[in-house]
Specification:
This is Ice-binding protein C-terminal domain-containing protein. There is one protein chain. The protein is mainly alpha-helical and 107 residues long. It folds into 2 domains: 74 residues, no CATH class; 32 residues. The protein has a two-stranded antiparallel ribbon. The protein starts with 35 loop residues before the first strand and ends with a helix.
């Protein structure tokens, strides 16, 4: 049997680049590329052996975006105003501690 050693029911890495498509049975999404999975994509994955939980025949307009998949892992980033208030708060705390220390030594 000919083959490339990859099981047909798994994602395959591109041989050369993301524009080097080698056939319908080698589905993949390239690194750093946002894409959406639609009902026809799920039907293809079901045909090559994936256990698809969504009934693609009952939901012909189903779409799923990779942005939805990775949004749970996105960490919140503080806004610049938050950083400014944090730095100002540390500065005022340090100034207060320095002032208390200076008045305690002079008494």
């Amino acid at each position: 049997m000919n083959g490339d050693g990859w099981q047909a029911s798994h994602w395959k890495a591109p041989a050369v680049s993301c524009v080097d498509f080698r056939g319908i049975m080698n589905p993949y999404i390239c690194n750093g590329v946002g894409d959406s999975v639609e009902s026809l994509d799920l039907a293809l994955l079901d045909a090559i052996g994936w256990n698809v939980n969504v009934d693609v025949l009952a939901n012909p307009g189903y779409t799923f975006s990779t942005a939805q998949a990775f949004s749970a892992f996105a960490a919140s980033v503080p806004e610049p105003g938050t950083w400014a208030m944090l730095i100002a708060g540390f500065g005022l705390t340090g100034a207060t501690m320095r002032r208390r220390r200076a008045t305690a030594l002079t008494v």
